[in-house]
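PROTEIN DESIGN WORKSHEET
SECTION A - STRUCTURE
LENGTH: 400
TOKENS:
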């Protein structure tokens, strides 16, 4: 059952129940008015009987039962003895009263009142049912108009699924929740389009970068086969290209691990000091700093930053510093090389981006950035004064 049909049925049911409730109240009020008028005339009839006066206008009858003694008017209807109360019997309004030693039944024949009550009930159900049906048809049209923006959104979603065209958008019409839903859907498509573009560019660059060492290794082998290179020279060159490809694959695997961090308690100061010693650079910072994170990923990120400092910073004045600022740990690799131009600082961190012609795969900063983000932090690239670059991992200490 479609949402439009559900909504129309719900509105029709709500309106039908409201009409039924109002009709029931009106019927009860009308019945009490009619019965009250008849009962008052019957009480007048009782007073007239008691005082020997003429009864009110209309057809009245009575029956007095006191033990074995029974008296009744000639026109009293054929009725069994009833307990005290008020009754309707075939057009007769009957009022049974308690009297000393028995009961007094007085009745008034008024088929018009009984007919009016039955017609009122019939009109109530007939008109109520007809109005409910008309409201159901009207509710169907209103629901269709109200859900039109949702239908457009469904159509666009279906076209996106069939064509994978993420440039499609839903016109944000109307207001309230439907407009907010359309805007949220468009925002989702924008994010997906940007993500798809990044993935496409990443895949294209990765394929290009992986093809280069493979082609170079193959060229070395073919050159050796044709006698242009010795076997040892070809093997050495091919091994170098294969090692380059290995570094590329490892970096790509690290990027693929985005968001999946195996956290454990570690000493961030000890980890930084160990990497600084491995690269032979000074370490500045506390002796110990408890942290919860992935030691392997953090060590790889630091190695990448240190390698970049030696490769692009020419190894001048490289040092590794650890500091605490607020709720963050700041791991900084500082060099005094030529630094990076402002345009390159904005692009750095994108996979396969190279700020210079120096050898490298263009993945070091990308991996460091992903590692920082996986820990809830960020990678900052700042110019060093008077020259050089500060590559900093800002890691939240409160991250669970």
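SECTION B - SEQUENCE
RESIDUE ASSIGNMENT:
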């Amino acid at each position: 059952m479609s949402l439009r049909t559900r909504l129309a049925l719900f509105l029709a049911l709500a309106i039908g129940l409201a009409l039924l409730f109002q009709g029931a109240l009106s019927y009860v009020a009308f019945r009490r008015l009619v019965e009250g008028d008849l009962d008052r005339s019957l009480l007048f009839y009782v007073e007239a009987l008691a005082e020997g006066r003429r009864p009110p206008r209309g057809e009245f009858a009575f029956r007095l039962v006191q033990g074995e003694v029974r008296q009744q008017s000639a026109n009293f209807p054929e009725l069994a003895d009833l307990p005290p109360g008020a009754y309707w019997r075939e057009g007769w309004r009957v009022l049974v009263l308690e009297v000393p030693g028995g009961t007094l039944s007085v009745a008034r024949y008024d088929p018009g009142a009984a007919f009016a009550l039955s017609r009122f009930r019939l009109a109530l159900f007939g008109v109520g049912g007809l109005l409910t049906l008309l409201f159901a048809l009207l509710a169907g049209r209103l629901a269709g108009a109200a859900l039109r923006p949702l239908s457009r959104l469904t159509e666009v979603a279906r076209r996106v699924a069939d064509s994978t065209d993420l440039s499609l958008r839903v016109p944000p019409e109307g207001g309230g929740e439907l407009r907010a839903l359309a805007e949220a859907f468009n925002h989702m498509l924008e994010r997906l389009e940007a993500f798809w573009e990044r993935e496409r560019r990443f895949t294209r660059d990765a394929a290009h970068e992986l093809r280069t060492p493979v082609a170079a290794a193959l060229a070395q082998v073919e050159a050796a086969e044709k006698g242009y290179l010795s076997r040892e020279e070809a093997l050495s060159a091919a091994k170098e290209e294969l090692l380059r490809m290995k570094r590329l694959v490892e970096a790509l695997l690290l990027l693929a691990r985005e968001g999946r961090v195996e956290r454990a308690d570690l000493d961030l100061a000890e980890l930084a000091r160990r990497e600084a010693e491995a690269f032979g650079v000074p370490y500045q910072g506390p002796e110990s700093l408890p942290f919860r994170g992935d030691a392997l990923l953090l060590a790889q990120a630091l190695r990448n930053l240190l390698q970049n400092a030696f490769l692009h910073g020419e190894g001048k004045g490289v040092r590794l510093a650890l500091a605490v600022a607020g709720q963050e740990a700041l791991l900084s690799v500082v060099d005094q090389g030529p630094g990076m131009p402002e345009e390159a600082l904005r692009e750095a961190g994108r996979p396969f981006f190279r700020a210079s012609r120096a050898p490298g795969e263009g993945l070091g900063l990308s991996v460091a950035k992903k590692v920082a983000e996986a820990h809830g932090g960020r990678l900052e690239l700042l110019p060093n004064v008077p020259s050089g670059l500060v590559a900093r991992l800002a890691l939240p200490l409160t991250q669970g």
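SECTION C - NOTES
The longest helix spans residues 176-225.
Residues 4 and 147 are 7 Å apart (CA to CA).
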